[in-house]
Model the fold of this input.
Amino acid sequence: MANVLVYIDTPGEHLHKTDRELLTLAGMLGEPVVALCGVLTDGVSAELGAHGAGVLYLPAQDGLGDVLVAGKAAFLAAAAVEAKADAVLLGNTFEAKEIAARVGIRLSSGVITDAIAVGEDFSVTKSVFAGSYTVNASVTTGCPIITVKANSVETATVQGGSSPEVRRVHVAAPSHAARITERSERAVSGRPSLDEARIVVAGGRGVDGNFGPVEELADALGGAVGASRAATDAGWIDHSAQIGQTGKTVSPQLYISAGISGAIQQKAGMQTAKVIVAVNKDPDAPVFDIADFGIVGDLSTVLPQATAEINNRRS
Amino acid sequence: MDEAIPALNIAVLVKHVPDTQFDRHLNGAHRTTDRSESILSELDEYALEAALQLVEAQGGNGHRVTAVTMGPPAAVNAVKKALQIGADEGIHLCDDALAGSDASGTSRALAAVVRHLGTADLVLTGMASTDGETSLVPAQLAELLQLPQVTFASSLELTHDGGGRQLIARRESDNVAETVRSTLPAVVSVTDQINEPRYPNFKGIMAAKKKPITTLTLADIGLEASEVGFSGAWTRVEQAQQRPPRSQGVIITDEGDAGRRLVDFLAEQKLL
Ligand SMILES: Cc1cc2nc3c(=O)[nH]c(=O)nc-3n(C[C@H](O)[C@H](O)[C@H](O)COP(=O)(O)OP(=O)(O)OC[C@H]3O[C@@H](n4cnc5c(N)ncnc54)[C@H](O)[C@@H]3O)c2cc1C
Ligand SMILES: Nc1ncnc2c1ncn2[C@@H]1O[C@H](COP(=O)(O)O)[C@@H](O)[C@H]1O
Done:
């Protein structure tokens, strides 16, 4: 069976949903093995086993994460060699793509990003040009290195999995690397993350400084909160909420766009959503061209009415 | 205080990409990007602006910003635009054998150009090309050139303290903000948060006509045709299907009950 190496970064107390998706995918394609950077807790170790990981590679030394990307890439490349990996799977964050990029050079292997499906022959399905094409691509040289978007697989556990066997990998510290001299963690909201959410409610310049109606509707629907660049640039909400070409690309079941005109750079991040709802007071807003359900109206009354209606129906 | 300011050489990588305002297509047997309606990648304008601002902040003379592109003959237009905006000279790597390069082939070719230039203190790039959108190239360049990688910088400055020049950058990701320090030379990619790119003015457009553009071939930079293009690619696009454009659904005008009608729609779609 193929050895499919899954890269997991700083899991914390529990594996992230995307990590569990990668492990499930690895199990569908072959034998999952794991390379993990960060602290390993007993809980995480048990979860790895429950998702079928037989062997776990850890760096033999600390501090790989103190430099930008290079250290983690050196470790993952070394682990791929040790594991005789037939393919390497990573998440699709900016950093994971960069680690993949460097591992590709180290192993003389092709890299494919943004996968939404991976076949048994490791061929990859992805969309390009802001969702206007679906392509099928393969790695033709080396060990396929694939970064997989969140929500591409349903997670599953295996029967009777036990904690994986740990093996240490020695890595030469990269000599040419930028050093991280300061790190500040931001408070995480209780809401689902944008990458993983089934429902996203996003606000733009039209919220005029008040994300309250957007957040309340998101909470009523159990969704994540997103924003246009106009809204993040104005400082009304954190930059990490930005959807679009230079922000996050999301493909949720439902995307509710409120007070967003629908510029091409915004559409680039959301037009592969299953269902799009738009609320905008301008009937000519381009977002209506791609909306399944559009409301010409004021978000500051439409959104609260919808939130109240949802809460009513539930009580 | 008469300390001489060492001249700064910056290579800015600029890509000629299909304009995102129009429909974009994959063509031909190899399903390659149709580059007929192309422009300087809008995300690379942030890299160029960052280069110009760094040079301006240095003071002194002799600094040089070189715009580098790799692509078919028309790609020289990306370099010309960069010269109009303010770059001092241009390099266009152009060779038939480059057609079909994937990220690794592009990185090998651009790394060879940077080596050929020999003197770059900084290699500045955009955060992603707006066509490929992989963000692979900057990290691969750093790996190939064995230079520090400072990617997704949302601010960038140079300091002279503590022996030699250093750069300090900020990075923001989901839940962390980081400060990063690096020695030079380094490969740096910048986000659209870093600055507000300037437009070319009339003076810049006139001045650009006199600025030198050098065209290089693979032979000039010491690469074999087999290392790049279709033959040197490590990935291949097997199939491409155009997705039908999204069509407009139902549009209503709020008559006081649109919030409730929105919830009816969600219920119908089983999204509640
Ligand atoms: C290089 C580059 C990258 C970019 N990347 C991104 C990106 O990743 N994501 C992104 O979003 N943008 C991006 N942009 C910016 C993009 O071009 C648009 O400027 C931006 O998306 C506009 O945001 P907006 O729709 O919120 O604002 P506007 O275009 O100003 O639209 C506001 C809308 O709100 C409506 N409105 C106002 N008040 C109300 C109300 N009370 N109720 C209902 N509707 C109301 C108005 O009718 C209008 O349609 C990028 C631009 C560049 C140049
Ligand atoms: N053919 C090219 N010519 C010049 N620069 C390029 C080319 N391809 C990529 N780049 C640079 O690399 C960055 C990231 O591109 P990518 O990895 O393709 O998303 C771009 O913003 C450019 O600065």
